[in-house]
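Open question from group meeting: does this chain pack into something compact, or does most of it stay loose? Before anyone orders reagents, we agreed to write out a predicted structure and look at it together. Recording both the input and the output here so the notebook holds the full record.
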Amino acid sequence: MKHTEYKIYSEFKYEEEEKWINEKAAKGENLTGIGFCRYVFEDGIPGEYIYRLEMLEHFPSHYKSKEYLDFLEETGVEFVGSILNWVYLRKKASEGPFEIYSDLDSKIKHYTRIINLVNSLIILQLIVTLPNMILSLTGNPINNMYILNLFIAAILFIGNKSLKQKIEKLEKEKTYRE
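Structure tokens returned:
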């Protein structure tokens, strides 16, 4: 039986989202569809699948992404769905461990892609903020939307800082291993 759940996760918390999806799969609720804040689950065998999330460099429809996803499919990985560049993947647990990032450099590249997206969102928020700030000078309270834009930009900035700290930690670990 299928059911839909609605939940909000941010780019900074993709590990928590992945963990939540895997906890559902351990109970026999397998992710079969994805949308903005929407997850479609279908009853199945508990622990049948392991799920991973990845932010691709390009949209899934891009030829480089298609080549990559085709390669993953050859290794037993199924494409569940995507939201923009984020892809939701699964593999049968019986086929062994499912790790996308096998080394520190690939983890660093992944976090860097997320940071680049968030930087774009921050810039967009600030671009929208400027005209709203100017319009607020007219005294019309509806033009105070810039406060919300600044709040969103601040949240993105703080999240970006946490991602940069993760990269720094991985860089240190990489130095220790060399």
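Observations to bring back to the group:
Helices lie at 14-26, 63-74, 104-136, 146-177.
The mean pLDDT is 88.
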